[in-house]
Amino acid sequence: MTDSAIEPMIELRNVKKVYDKKVVGLKKVNLTINKGEFVVVVGLSGAGKSTLLRSINRLIDVTEGDILIDGKSITKARGKKLRLLRRNIGMIFQNFNLVKRSSVLRNVLAGRVAYYPTWKTIFNLFTKEDKERAYEALKQVDLADKVYARADELSGGQQQRVAIARVLMQNPKVILADEPTASLDPQTSLKVMEDLKMLNEKHGMTVIANLHSVELARKFGQRVIGIRAGEIIYDGKMSATPESVFTKIYNGGEEDD
Amino acid sequence: MIDDSLTQLPKKRFKIINLIWLIVLIAGLFISINVTNTHISVLFENFSQFSDIFVQMANPDWSYFPTVIPLLLETIKMAVLGTIIGSALAFVYSLLIARNIIKNKLVTGVLRFIMNIIRTIPDLLLGAIFVAIVGIGPVAGILALSVFTFGVVVKLFYEAIETIDPGPIEALTAVGANKLQIICFAILPQVMTYFISYSLYAFEINVRASTVLGYIGAGGIGLYLQQTLQVFDYAKTGTIILVIIVVVVLIDYISSKSREALMK
């Protein structure tokens, strides 16, 4: 990657989020994330990592400030405009959020609904091309044999990979991963992170992942952002980040160095 | 040192309020008996008559059987149509009053108020109202059963919708889906089996309810029930009752078996 290719993908400008007029989620956050980056966000539970991620695709409405996705404001978008912006932002959840009673194929196809007029999706009129594409996506996460299985027949790790296939189907420019490995064992976590890396490298998607595990953060992140009490307290290249930074983020900077 | 008073099971304290409630209940019982003039003796005074009727009914008039069949079929048709129409209405209405779909509390509040009013009307009164509106015949019965089914299914179904896992809704929102797509992909797959199950349950109730609707002229086998009772032809009444019992038991059995299978 050459430096000339650096273009902002997500810009947060003075973003503030206050819950119920009291609890502060984010305090005046300014942040720019460039195209093609793999960013990990670390911080304690309740520090505001989830709030940050959910503000970006507006699952949460911010109290103040503006967020631009590829130059377009998502905070001001309504209706169809908002849905089209969201189409460009995939999301991976801690609890996978699959429809457990539906088949794996239908869960993957759900990633595509924003590309279709409503009536076609209601009558399940997906094109043959898209069904093939869904199968391709499942192949990429090694779940081709589970295409007609019901989602609740799969293990946690497999379900998370179905969710990744759903994101592949959505074909977004950005992926937000909110604690994608928090409910998985270490080996499965690694596999899921490898899949995210594949999306980043092979498909050029910008990835922002909230992680609890410093180990995984170190292994996969190119850039690390530390959050404490709704503020960004660290932002830098992973390769240039000393261990002390993580201690500081997780221990509230109580150590003296 | 161990406190001596705690080594033994302490006596439960006597509460005066409980005694007062007991007295109030017994007094209430006696007052109601006196006001309504209900005496257990009334039941036994005519007991011989009761056993008389029972003996007559226990010897059903089987020659009456072929006459009963067409109206029996009409009754079942009424129940089927009433269930389908009522459930379909309840389906749409439930989506509009579930607070995890419609966020506007004013809309859901008003619609729920209307629903609660409809639910308070008993099925026989509904039958009487529709007989007055559309005249005597099965159409009145179908309409009454539709409204009744609506009341049963809408309550159960919207509550089922509100208890679903919100995760898929979030996922579909993030994908860029609109409201209808969210309903179709995130909500309905989670609740469809409940809907079918509740509709079958309503059908069971409807089969039973439809047998008496004829009594007030709303079509079905109830008409013969009324006619035979009026002329004291208990043998024929017995035939009707037996046929109804067989049909109800059969339908209940099939319906509950299929509901069990659905929930797997």
Automatic annotation (TrEMBL), chain A:
InterPro entries: AAA+_ATPase (IPR003593), ABC_transporter-like_ATP-bd (IPR003439), ABC_transporter-like_CS (IPR017871), ABC_transpr_PhnC (IPR012693), MetN_ABC_transporter-like (IPR050086), P-loop_NTPase (IPR027417). It comes from Lactobacillus acetotolerans. CDD domains: ABC_PhnC_transporter (cd03256). GO terms for cellular component: membrane. This is Phosphonate ABC transporter ATP-binding component. It comes from the Bacteria. GO terms for molecular function: ABC-type phosphonate transporter activity; ATP binding; ATP hydrolysis activity. Pfam families: ABC_tran. Keywords: ATP-binding, Cell membrane, Membrane, Nucleotide-binding, Phosphonate transport, Translocase, Transport. Residues 10-254 form the ABC transporter domain. The gene is phnC.
From TrEMBL, chain B:
SUPFAM superfamilies: MetI-like. It comes from the Bacteria. It is a multi-pass membrane protein. It holds the Pfam family BPD_transp_1. It is found in: Cell membrane. Residues 72-255 form the ABC transmembrane type-1 domain. Its main location: membrane. One of its GO terms (cellular component) is plasma membrane. Keywords: Cell membrane, Membrane, Transmembrane, Transmembrane helix, Transport. GO terms for molecular function: ABC-type phosphonate transporter activity. The chain crosses the membrane at residues 16-35, 78-102, 123-148, 180-200, 207-225, 237-255. Belongs to the binding-protein-dependent transport system permease family. This is Phosphonate ABC transporter permease component. The gene is phnE.
